[in-house]
Amino acid sequence: MIQDIEDRDLKKDGELDLSSKKTSTSRKILSTVVLGAITLALLGAKFLPTAVFSGCKPSSNQEIDTQMILEDLCPTAEKLIPEESTQFAGITQFGTPEYKNHSLSVWRDAVRLYTPSFDDLGPVGEDSRWDVFFKFEDYLMKTFPLMAKKSELVHVNTHGLVFILHGKNETLKPMMLTAHQDVVPVPDDTVPRWKHSPFGGYFDGKFLWGRGSSDCRNNLIGIMEAAEALLSEGFKPERSLIIGFGFDEECSGEQGAAHINEYLLKRFGEDSIEFLIDEGGLGIQDLYGSRFSLPATGEKGYVDIVISLVTNGGHSSVPPDHTSIGIISDLIQTIETKRYPLRISENNPFYFQLKCEAKSGRTMDPLLRDSIAHLDSSCSAKTRVLETLDDDINVRYLASTSQAVDIIDGGLKINALPENVTVKINHRVAYDSSTDEVKAKILSKVSAIAEKYKLAVRDFAGKEISGFRHSKISEILPSGYFELHSEQELGPAPITKTLNNKSWNILSGTIRHVFEDFVSYPDADPAVPSDVTVSPSVMTGNTDTKHYWALTKNLYRFTPIRQNARFNAHAIDERVELNAHIDSVAFYYDLLRNVDENDRQN
């Protein structure tokens, strides 16, 4: 069942007129959800739609217990605490001043190694800008000598690093942890705006500053620290551990993760990995007076739409009423005026996040809680929930496709009419949608503008679908045509199921243990209980996991960190708390121990 918010000209029974809505407390309830989750999306022009909800049943006086409904869809994870052992020092070792100093040194020196990836990089081996990764590999091998000695290291496409720590039981599927070695570039003109050098690894007593400190040296070094600590204690896993580090995630991963995937598929086969954990998710955060962990069990799709307008040009002293730039501007306004519909269904991990927040959020408005519980069976409940989502940009794009006009190019000289104008629109495709829906919308809008200005259109297949190129009124309108292309089409990722899933139970149980029993929350509201509700969530952006779909049915995107302990990934003054980095080391350490204990017991 899918519920939509769409444009409609008429109101009918069951429709919600948002044009006359007033902001209410319940509609603001979700304002703090997933802060920073949609930094990849650009808000288009606001429209005032009429909402239509299809397939819902009329409200009834059903006496179904709200909490029972929510518990079924968001069962409480059992906390997993590794057994006490004389072999392992446990995660308390990471909280000592001695270890914190060691961890800071290791992490800081990694941040000082600047490894940017650029969109225009040439092939590996031909473009010398890739060579920075040789130095980073050398650093890892010297800093983590036990990993270098006891694991098999495979180089994939030169700079892709695959460490394989072989398990005692080769019949068990390996587990896999991933991160990426590259960071986003720091533009030269922004360096003076940093409080501390982006390349210096400055520590102010609380935060480590620098490019990549958050995205994602924290994960990569945390994984290596945890593995090194376990190996120093004689750890020999039942199940093999694969650690894979790509090197161009920030420019789509085609040279790194894509090649690593090909290698692993060839060596191990499809669905050969028990589970995979990459960066991502929404960390640990306090919402509705309760504490939540939000690993992403899915991520939205992706497509870039390229629209070109070709016209005759001419001298700007005798211009038409609308140059090609003016026409493109009209098109952009038309596209941005209508957003994509909001949809909620079990096909989207965000559906389960809503259920978990309603179940555990102590301060959630009771009416909103009941509405979330009954949104599958009550039109009024659906209306209330979708209206709440539509009000808040911080959650809207977890349930709808985003569109962002990011690049426009056209015109070469001030006294010459532009002959070629191009606009590029980035889309993050929602669950319950598709790249085909995006292309259909764009084609519809372009066709309408082409009709208005008597222009031709070449659709995504290269077929000309309107014939106004040779206009009889070319003296006031430029004759020409639109041409449409799509780039990097990718549908929404397969969803990892969480109910009755052993890997999810281990992940969520480990999260509860580490973030309830080890982690401190110095900036949190003391009224928030320590219990952590672990909920599925969805990523609005893409990670290297998009290349690993064939390797496993259990793909998780989770950076083990308090959301309020990291700032400004991809931006000026990127920084992360040292204590938060220590938390990540503890998480990976106990995750590996919990997996191993489960394997030995079963």
From TrEMBL:
Limits of the Peptidase M20 dimerisation domain: 297-453
UniProt keyword annotation of Membrane present: yes
UniProt record, GO biological process: proteolysis involved in protein catabolic process
CDD domains: M20_yscS
Active site, UniProt feature: 182, 249
Family designation: Belongs to the peptidase M20A family.
Gene Ontology molecular-function annotations: metal ion binding; metallocarboxypeptidase activity
InterPro entries: Bact_exopeptidase_dim_dom, Pept_M20_carboxypep, Pept_M20A, Peptidase_M20, Peptidase_M20_dimer
The protein's name in its UniProt record: Peptidase M20 dimerisation domain-containing protein
Transmembrane segments: 29-48
Binding site for Zn(2+) 2: 180, 215, 278
Pfam families (UniProt xref): M20_dimer, Peptidase_M20
Record: residues binding Zn(2+) 1: 215, 250, 570
Cellular component per GO, a single term: fungal-type vacuole lumen
Gene3D superfamilies in the record: 1.10.150.900, 3.30.70.360, Zn peptidases
UniProt KW keywords: Hydrolase, Membrane, Metal-binding, Protease, Transmembrane, Transmembrane helix, Zinc
